[in-house]
C-alpha cells in the first residue's frame, strides 16, 4: 500500500515538472495598439505572440476628406513590416484632400475657391453693389451664422449670404421718409423672414413703433448694423429668431436688447420668465402678446418699465418686483391692452415691504413709495421708512384713488423728498392744495393731471424741474407759485386749467412749451425778457372758456423789455384767437401797444 502511494506521488511531481518546462518554452504575448488619429478602424488593438511578423500596410483606417499616409511608430518613423518583440503603438498619418468652398449670395453662386479639408480660413468679403450684405451662414436656411474663421469640410464647403439693396427694401416695406431717416411703418405682404438694411436711398433706417405689431407669421428677422428699432416695433409678433449684423443690439435670455434695455421678448419664450440681472430698463410693449409667459420676475437692477409692457398677456399673469427705485412700474398702466382697456386680470406680487399703507422698496439707504394701499384721506408722508430717508414717489403710486374708497384731500411732503414720478397723483379728485418741499428736484409728467379740486400749488424749491402736463385738466387750479429758477413751462403743463386766470412767470424762464396754457383762464400775462421761444398753441383758447364776459376779448401779452430782437409767431401761439401785445421798456413804462384781433 505504501509503495502504491509513492508511485502516485512521483507521477504528480513529474506532471508538474513537465508543465513548468512547457510553459517556459511558450512564446511571450504583446499588445499592439492602433490610433486612427481622427479616422475609424474596426480593430483598435490586438494581442500578438513574440516573434510574429505583421504587415501594417494591410491595416487601413478610413477618414472622410483625407488620404491615409501609413502608420508611424512612437518615434514618428514610418512603419510597414514589423516583428513583434514588445508592446507597440502605431498612429495613422493623413494627408488632407482638396475641398472646394462655394459662396452663394441670394441663392446664386457668387464665388468659389480651393481649400483643403480641415483648413481654417477666413471667408472672402462680399463686394457687391450699394446695399448691405448680412454675412456668411453655414446653411442654406441661414440659421447658423459662420464665425470669422471657418474650418473647411471634407470635399466641399458651402457658405450662404443675402445682399439687400434699395429695390429689395422698397418692394418689402411700407415706409415714410424725412430729411435724415427712413422709418419702416409696416410690411407690404405677410412674410416669415425679413431683412432690414441699415440704409435706404442714403438715409438711415428706423423700425417705427408698431411697424410689425401682431405680425404672427413673421418668424425670423435679420437686422443691419446701423438699424434703429423703436419700442413696440415687434409687439405681439411671431418673431422667434433675430440675427444681428453688428451694432448695439444683442440677444440674451430669449430677448432682444438695446444695450441694457430689454426691447422685446421673443415669441418662443414660455413659462416663468426671469429678467436678466443686468437689465436696466424694460421697453414699452416688451412682453406684449406673449401669452405663453405665466410669470415675470423683474430684478432690482431695473429702474424703468415702459408703457403697456405686459399688454395682451395671458390672464392671471404674475409679476414680481424685486425693487424698482426710480422706476416707472404700475399695474394699471403696464398691464393694459393696446386699445387702453384692461381686459385681463393681473396679480402683482411686490417684494417691496408695506408699512402704514405704503408699499415701498429700499435701496442704498433710501426709500421709494411704489403704491398706496392705506385708507387715510389726510396724508402726512414720513421722513423715513424702515430707517431710510424717503426720497421718491414712483409712477402712479397714488393715482386715481378717487375711483376707490380712498379720497385723499390733503398731503404733506417730507423735506427729504427729491422727486415725484409720472402720474403719481393723477386723478386725485378730492385733493385741494399741495406745497412742495425745498428738497424737491423734479416733478414727473402728468403728476397731478386731472386733480379737478386742486386749487393751489406752491413750489418752495427754486430749481425744481416740472415735466409736461404736470397740472393738466386741474379745473379748479387758480393759484400757482412756480420755482424761482424755472427755465421752461413744459408742454401742456397747465392745459385746460380754466380757473387759472393769472400766473407770475419767473425771470429765469427761457421757453414756453406747446399747449402750455391751452384753454386756461389766462386773460393777461407778462412774458419775461428772458423768454426766447413760445411754442404753437401755448395760449390757444385762453381766457374765454366758461367765461362769457371774456369771450371774444383778446388775451393780453405784456412783453417785459420789449421785443428786444425776439420774434414770436403769435398766430401759431394763440391758434388764431384774438390777442393784444403790449411792450414795456426796460424802465417799465408802456412803450407800444399793438392790437391784433
From TrEMBL:
It comes from the Bacteria. Residues 1-26 form the signal peptide. Pfam families: Flg_new, LRR_5. Keywords: Signal. One of its GO terms (cellular component) is cell envelope. It is found in: Cell envelope. Gene3D superfamilies: Listeria-Bacteroides repeat domain, Ribonuclease Inhibitor. PANTHER family: IG-LIKE DOMAIN-CONTAINING PROTEIN (PTHR45661:SF3), SURFACE ANTIGEN (PTHR45661). This is Leucine-rich repeat protein.
